[in-house]
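Bumping with the actual sequence this time:
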Amino acid sequence: MAQLWRFTKVESINSAEDNPQELPAGRCRPGLSVLNLDEFHERMIENHITCIQEPEETFGTLIAQYLDPDGLSISVSEERKSS
């Protein structure tokens, strides 16, 4: 069976509303990369996973967001095609 996803390092860009000095400890923003986001999204919806952002192109990358059972948002992007 082909691997549907893989873990991806997610970089945080600090801004006024994302200041670590102003936020409580314990924050996490995991991200995954998949080969086909449309297929992944369809499987998540079929399995009643809450989608908080439908797949859309952002800065040239297709990305969506879902909630895990604890309410943590998880970003899922589609791997960029090699040129």
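The tokens above came from a reply further down the thread. Residues 13 and 19 are 10 Å apart (CA to CA).
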